[in-house]
Write a structure and sequence with these properties.
Chain lengths: ~550, ~550
Amino acid sequence: MEFTAVSHEPKYRDSYALDAQTLEIRVKTKKGDVQHADLIFGDPYLWEDEQWVKHSKAMHYSGSSEWYDFWTVRIHPLYQRVRYGFTFRSGQQTWTFTEKGWYNEPPKDTDEYFCFPFMNAVEVFRAPKWVEETVWYQIFPERFHNGDSSLSPEGTPPWGSKPPTPSNFFGGDLKGVEEKLDHLIELGVNGIYFTPIFKALSNHKYDTIDYFEVDPHFGDTDSLKSLIDACHKRGIRVMFDAVFNHSGFYFPPFQDVLKHGSESKYKDWFHIKDFPVKTSPAANYDTFAFTPQMPKLNTEHPEVKEYLLDVATYWIKEFDIDGWRLDVANEVDHTFWREFRMRTKAIKPDLFILGEIWHDSMPWLQGDQFDSVMNYPFTEAALDFVAKGRISSHTFAQRIAHILHQYPSPVHRVAFNLLGSHDTPRVLTEAGHNVSKVKMLYLLLFAFPGTPCIYYGDEIGLTGEHDPGCRKCMVWEKDQQNRDLFAFLQQLITLRKQHSSFSPQADLSIEHADADTNLLVLKKTNNNKEIYLVMNPSFHSQSMNLSFFESTHKETLIEEG
Amino acid sequence: MEFTAVSHEPKYRDSYALDAQTLEIRVKTKKGDVQHADLIFGDPYLWEDEQWVKHSKAMHYSGSSEWYDFWTVRIHPLYQRVRYGFTFRSGQQTWTFTEKGWYNEPPKDTDEYFCFPFMNAVEVFRAPKWVEETVWYQIFPERFHNGDSSLSPEGTPPWGSKPPTPSNFFGGDLKGVEEKLDHLIELGVNGIYFTPIFKALSNHKYDTIDYFEVDPHFGDTDSLKSLIDACHKRGIRVMFDAVFNHSGFYFPPFQDVLKHGSESKYKDWFHIKDFPVKTSPAANYDTFAFTPQMPKLNTEHPEVKEYLLDVATYWIKEFDIDGWRLDVANEVDHTFWREFRMRTKAIKPDLFILGEIWHDSMPWLQGDQFDSVMNYPFTEAALDFVAKGRISSHTFAQRIAHILHQYPSPVHRVAFNLLGSHDTPRVLTEAGHNVSKVKMLYLLLFAFPGTPCIYYGDEIGLTGEHDPGCRKCMVWEKDQQNRDLFAFLQQLITLRKQHSSFSPQADLSIEHADADTNLLVLKKTNNNKEIYLVMNPSFHSQSMNLSFFESTHKETLIEEG
């Protein structure tokens, strides 16, 4: 077998406690190399007759990515500690892999083995339980509904009368959201992720001017309180957007630095290279993505840290928000996020902390920082498979397996899965305006471990290219909404709530993924109840043998296309 | 090439900032597979003419373990952020490896690449600078010197008159250490690691009774203050042993639980399974290594945490100690250690935090917990090679390369390297009483990146099997000391201080490692000065061609055997 392909990252990606009693351990081998894998394990201190007391437990094959097979096992170490290694059967041979290398048979000395020293309860990855039961809805407030035109910026054109541009306004506001909560209830969602609502210059509000003030075009603290109360009364959780990587250009401390230069008491709040501060030809201070309007905050500075942590706790204490989505979370230091978690969870233990990270996020998902990240790797795989037809069902299945083995499994239970956001083209546009494809994408979204998020308007068939196109005004005229798509989503949400085998607790497995036919069959299982999802993204009639599932009780829950 | 062998763990083992400007990136490939490796990198936000602006830099081959070749490169991202991938030349073909997989040529979209989002200064791994310049000396106080026989336990036999047992005493104390500081100064060491000195029952004191009191057999706060002052005056740093995983059986809170059971206010300070608490036939509470005398502390409990953090800060504030060595550090939760670091470094920023971990310690070396760990993997490799003759110089070189690529390179600058301790047989015993082998082992120890530690008595040729054998009384009669070995160690320490190419800042490389002859040639380089260490562990006369080094100025610094 190919020894070099085998890897195992202990106490990080590949071994972690599920609870104070259960340890999950994973290892990967080169695809097709291994027919059987066992975990060899024992308490580090338990010896009898000068022999280490070790046990063996078969691992189960848990999927394959493009290059690897994955093996997973759960054990319950009696004394919460374990040394372990792996034996693999490859053809006629058996090999043992430990922290120290490869052996013909399991080594005798515990020192050779991988170590999970102690399953301290505090280290169990714990996201708020309510998140698993949540179906999210993302609202870009400026474009959702104009509930109070007296707040709208001067010269605001009629709702939806023009295409969205990077700088125009349509007057969406908090009262507008509250007025339209019926729509959300009808759809069945129970969590709202709001892009920023604090005072800022732009329509997207990612250039904060005042972190303690509601944007006056959106409303005030009264309208916000009223909206959050209304949400909570109707069982909807509320998540805000924390833009802590950078401030806006008109954030008073930055203005003070512009004005007073090196004399400003805020000069260390940013990363200023030299004085006087200038914005052209290039900013001489760190920015987000070379945008002079977004000076990067120095989150290592004690005052900045204190200021931002005050912001974080203020909105929880005063407005009882349920979650923070962290903008550009990867560019802010880990130390800040650890303190952020400690301080916010101290006042609201079941606060949800969601990081915006598009790439591999393991360094933030060790339990000390975020509960979850935005699962764009899922988005990309799903769009490539169904919307764009770039990859086969077989490749899609491999991408899924890769994603599911990239983080400890408890992380996936609260993964924030999405098909699009204010930062991507809309799903219907990605799918070439093919509603059937969009439905199939939603089926994948709801089948995937974690929580689904619907971007406002996607449920009624809004279209739009990349920003600013994807930020169109919501369409409220029912005859201009795709009610069929809306009904389909309603059905999925109901299914998730009512069918245990489609619930957040159900396991997902890939039953069939054929590179030739592109047919994909997923199985969701919970408490011995199963649901099969058969997908034919070619949308040409194809027949397949469904004999792989045998059931005493069969029922077709959804049939489309 | 073998794609499956290639791995890269970003922002963890394989990419990390050396300072706020310099990023070091490493990747491993299957041994012999790749002739050339380049890093492909660019700022995530820098695009020109709709093309991502990317650069390429050759990586250098930095060693081989048994199965892998390692490649390393340093870059200086202008805006402290980078997306990157690797291209490999293997035979006639070139391949690109990114976070998303393998390509024939570098992909165009930044999303495909690995990400180091921002080099936040606070995340740079920083151990105290003084540690690099330290040569440690480990003292087991009960066995070093009896300076005040009035403190000795009743019936203490004459110094060294009996072999050490798990339970006997010889009266070593703090005054004894102070009286013998000349010996340390003569040797040249400048840091002492003391095994525990707090009130405890046993001779080793790992079963603490009172964390705030000096063991009465060792002295009192006056003798401790006097000793620490004397050390500091003579340029010697002092590190204490923090036994926080477990207390002793006679720790008053545990005694209270024994007495009052579930009524005790300390019942949650430990991990009690049921009441009443009993010790036989098996303890019904968590212990260290099934030792009922060592009940595991519940370091998740706020009171316990506060108590132990008080201990940690008390000895720094009141006695100005310079370091804490953390006993059984791996079994205590990460959350506790993060708080430990924050609280202790807040009052003494250059405190050294050293964890006792024998296995892979990456989860503790991310900058948020420890500065260093005890480098037993080095110990094992060095003993296997020189002392036990179990592995060839070639295999030793592979083990070294593995160790050096296991953690970010800044970690190695303060690695706590040792050939033995109170927990292992003594090095001279391991070497079959062959002093020449021991000298060669010390040469390796001093050549290795990090700081060397000498276990008391090893410098004058003490012998001893595993505990209790390795805890003999120090021999002070010069005619019974191996002064030749002592002089050799003096020479090494002087060399380390005086020769820049042998200093802690010098780089180590393996110039020659031959499986047949077992000859090993190491090179230490600093500021274009080089030193070659030629080792012949067979101790039979062998000739080798030294033409690989050419120098205008040659000088033989040490010649032995």
